């Protein structure tokens, strides 16, 4: 009897693997992503033709690069909204012009998430090389004003990653004053989430110190299918450089890739506590490894 096909509930699509920033805590930002490109409309249409027979709980248009680099982004948003209950976009915000603000608010986008990092304006601009805190935050406020004026329901979130010192109490974190003060008048329209920076898979030095394996289950390879700009399917959002390609959606069906020997072998290895190289020390199944201030130049 054929095994029942269990659909992934989340679809991730990469509009652009390229980024205009060089963030110090990101493998893309430090130049390790040699397989980056921009998804053309032709490739997107081929991808969409393979996935539009399914329905997803969530669609995420992001995979490490900057989505607003893609001139076809809002075309993609309109399309994936027809097959997903919830559509999310992650962006650094630097390319969000007044015209793009209007497109965001007229689109079927459910949530847009921005990144403003560090514990101060200076730290943000140093960590997120290419970022201008003032310019980006001013544009986010323009978005919030227009959102209120037109009654848009799109959720607006700011993600704030802070780089801790070695003596930081990692059990406690507060959103920085520069963000709280800048958005003090918009607390009813925005959510601010702060985290400490983890070592990403593939980040230099990550595997020099071994962490303790604490889990044999990873939700990413059970619930989420991630499609890169060229149609390659990778296991999760942490494989930013296509270290473990599971197949290509342009060459095979979603079902065949999702149930192929590569995926099943990966799931089996994690379940049996013998994770492959890409997953070793990943904070999804190992004790967290943090990226500290003495490891970056801020």
Give the amount of beta strand, in percent: 15-25%
Give the strand tally.
9
What is the overall shape? globular
Lateral arrangement of strands in the main beta sheet: 6-5-4-3-2-1-7-8-9
C-alpha end-to-end distance = 58 Å
What would you report as the Rg, rounded to the nearest angstrom? 19 Å
Task: Name the helix and strand elements from N-terminus to C-terminus, one letter apiece.
Answer: EHEHEHEHHEHEHEEEHH
Uncertain segments are none
Q: Mean pLDDT across all residues, rounded? A: 93
Biggest β-sheet, characterized?
9 strands, mixed
Category by helix and strand content = alpha/beta
Q: Which bin fits the share of residues in helices?
A: 25-40%
Number of helices: 9
Question: Mind sketching the topology for me?
Answer:
Blueprint: E1 10-13, H1 41-51, E2 56-61, H2 73-80, E3 84-91, H3 98-106, E4 111-115, H4 121-127, H5 133-150, E5 155-162, H6 177-182, E6 191-196, H7 220-223, E7 224-227, E8 232-234, E9 247-248, H8 254-258, H9 261-271
Parallel strand pairs: 1-2, 1-7, 2-3, 3-4, 4-5, 5-6
Antiparallel strand pairs: 7-8, 8-9
């Amino acid at each position: 009897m054929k095994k029942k096909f269990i659909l992934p509930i989340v679809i991730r699509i990469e509009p652009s693997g390229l980024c205009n920033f060089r963030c110090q805590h990101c493998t893309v930002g430090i130049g390790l992503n040699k397989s980056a490109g921009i998804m053309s409309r032709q490739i997107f249409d081929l991808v969409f033709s393979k996935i539009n027979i399914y329905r997803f709980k969530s669609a995420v248009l992001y995979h490490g690069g900057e989505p607003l680099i893609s001139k076809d982004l809002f075309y993609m948003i309109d399309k994936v909204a027809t097959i997903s209950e919830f559509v999310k976009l992650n962006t650094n915000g630097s390319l969000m012009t007044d015209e793009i603000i209007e497109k965001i608010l007229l689109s079927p986008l459910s949530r847009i998430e921005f990144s403003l990092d560090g514990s101060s304006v200076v730290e943000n601009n140093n960590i997120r090389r290419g970022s201008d805190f003032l310019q980006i935050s001013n544009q986010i406020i323009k978005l919030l004003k227009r959102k209120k004026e037109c009654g848009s329901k799109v959720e607006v979130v700011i993600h704030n990653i802070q780089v801790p010192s070695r003596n930081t109490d990692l059990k406690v974190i507060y959103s920085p004053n520069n963000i709280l003060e800048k958005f003090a008048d918009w607390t009813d329209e925005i959510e601010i989430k702060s985290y400490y920076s983890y070592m990403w898979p593939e980040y230099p030095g990550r595997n020099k110190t071994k962490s303790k394996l604490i889990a044999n289950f990873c939700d990413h390879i059970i619930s989420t299918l991630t499609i890169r700009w060229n149609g390659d399917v990778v296991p999760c959002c942490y494989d930013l450089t296509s270290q473990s390609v599971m197949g290509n959606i342009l060459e095979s069906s979603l079902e065949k890739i999702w149930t192929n020997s590569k995926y099943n072998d990966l799931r089996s290895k994690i379940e049996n506590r013998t994770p492959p190289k890409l997953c070793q020390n990943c904070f999804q199944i190992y004790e967290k490894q943090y990226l500290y201030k003495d490891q970056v130049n801020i």
